[in-house]
Amino acid sequence: MLQPVLNFLGLASVVNVFKVPELRTKILFTLAMLAVYRIGFWIPLPGVDQALLIQHFQDAGETAFGRVASYVAVFSGGSFGQSTIFGLGIMPYITAAIIMQLVGSVSQTIKKLREEGPTGQAKIQDWTRRLTVGLCLIQAIMWLSYINQAGLVEPQWRGNTVWYLMGVTAMTAGTVFLMWIGEQIDRFGIGNGASMIIMAGILAEMPGAIGWVIGNFEPGVDGKLDFMSLILLLGGFVLVCGGAVLITVAQRRIPVQQAKHTRGRKVVGGQRSYLPLRVNHGGVMPIIFASSLMLFPSVIFSAINENVQRIGTGGFWPLLTQWMSDNFQMGEFMYVMFYIVLVYFFSYFWITVQFNPEEMSKQLRDHGSFIPGLRPGPRTAEYLETVMERITFVGAAALAVIAVLPMIVNRSLNIDFRVAQFLGGTGLLIVVAVSLDFLQRVEANLMMRNYAGFLGGQDDGKAKRIRGPRG
User: Fold this and answer.
1) How far does CA 157 lie from the centroid of its chain?
2) Given this model, what pLDDT does residue 23 score?
3) Can you tell me the distance from the alpha carbon of 258 to that of 364, in angstroms, rounded to the nearest whole number?
4) CB 437 within 8 A of CB 423
5) Tens digit of pLDDT for each residue in 14-69?
6) CA spacing 20 to 30 A to 338: which of 3, 110, 378, 388?
7) Distance between CA 239 and CA 281 in Å, rounded?
8) Domains in the chain, ordered, with CATH?
9) Which long-range contacts (CB under 8 A, 24 or more apart) does 141-144 make?
């Protein structure tokens, strides 16, 4: 009786998820681990004056340091307006994984370990954990030193060595615990653990953004949102989400022909398939690298300008520093132009590091496959490299548009950045990519047990499937 109603509402697939005991257990385990993460995020760091800290970051606002804190907060899972044991978030682990990935492209030792299979991967993972602890120690000391110098520590603990040891230990242990939670989700849950933690932190900001929109919705009042502004915001959110999904799953499919083999009196092989090349091969990494680098000019030029203005030097120098400080603020024309250039640069840098056309051509040849019209070997590698360079140009353009959209909305429409960040940028791309990957894994489990996927169809495992970031 309920089945037609569920089918009409599109909830049949959701109900099917909880019909499979194994899948239900994985999803509930994942949700429980994410709940532990969010609960731990509210455990304060001992000795920090939380009231002064909140006031300090409210005063920072649109300053260079305030923007740095807002950007880092995307990955730490909340605002730096509160210092907690999970204050560093999962970012040190992500940074360590990226460093190992980049070093692995030039280090023969790591390349050999990767070829060893699970044993080698386990050793690389162990090195990544050790590097994570080192990064945690450095970042925790820098953060504690900053809040100590800013007078945000309770008087009895200021400059106290015991407090430094306690704070560094607590923040390092917090990140290591988050790393453990991510690995447990990988093993016993569903989805990529570290990515799920980052997504949970980003989505935790959504209630605040919705609250800002509700609080500023006053039609007829200058400087407030009216009906048209609200419609534009909602429509922009839907369009940008659709564009982010499109750029995440977009592929260029290269036709591949398998060679025919004669075995006795039978001819086998000869099947046609395709080689998927992702348009956005670098994912969110180009935006992360570009955003990280663009923080430095903003902070450095602002600091130089403040010192020059305080000294009161005359002549051309104060005008130059003022111009540099103003034009390298987030959302200004010079900032946006350099940001777009860096997105393009890192998009091509990432495919240079991660995409190996020679190795791909060799694998095709070893498996008896070839691209029609091209000879196996160097000619195939050259063709794959050319195609990847062309589609990367399109992918980088789409990334650049999504990356700069929150800045433009924030500047031109005077929309709070907490709301604008959901109209593009790093956070939105991460949420889209992780959500698609999660849904694809859940759907694969459903269809393996002959249930319909999320796109509908009969419960025979042959329905249309969601295309995730991995194809």
Assistant:
1) 36
2) 84
3) 9
4) no
5) 777 777 788 888 889 999 999 998 888 888 888 888 778 777 776 665 555 555 66
6) 388
7) 22
8) 18-204 (1.10.3370.10), 219-428 (1.10.3370.10)
9) 141/168, 143/83, 143/87, 143/88, 143/171, 144/168, 144/171
Residue carrying structure tokens 């109900």: 15
What are the backbone angles phi and psi of residue 414, rounded to the nearest 5°? 60, 40
Q: Which two tokens stand for residue 215?
A: 């609080």
Q: For residues 468 and 471, give the distance between their C-alpha atoms in angstroms, rounded to a whole number.
A: 5
> pLDDT tens-digit profile of 190-224?
888 888 888 888 888 788 778 888 888 888 777 77
Average pLDDT of the chain?
A: 79
Angle value at C-alpha 56, between 52 and 60, nearest 5 degrees: 175
For residue 57 the two structure tokens come to 């970051």
Give the pLDDT confidence score for residue 7 in this predicted structure: 52
CA distance 129 to 122: 11
Q: How far apart are CA 435 and CA 199, in angstroms?
A: 8
Q: 123-136 burial by CB neighbour count: b if 16+ within 10 A, else e?
A: ebeeebbebbbebb
Give pairs for 229-235: CB < 8 Å, separation 24+. Answer: 229/413, 233/415, 233/419, 233/423
Torsion (CA) 63, 64, 70, 75 in degrees, nearest 10: -170
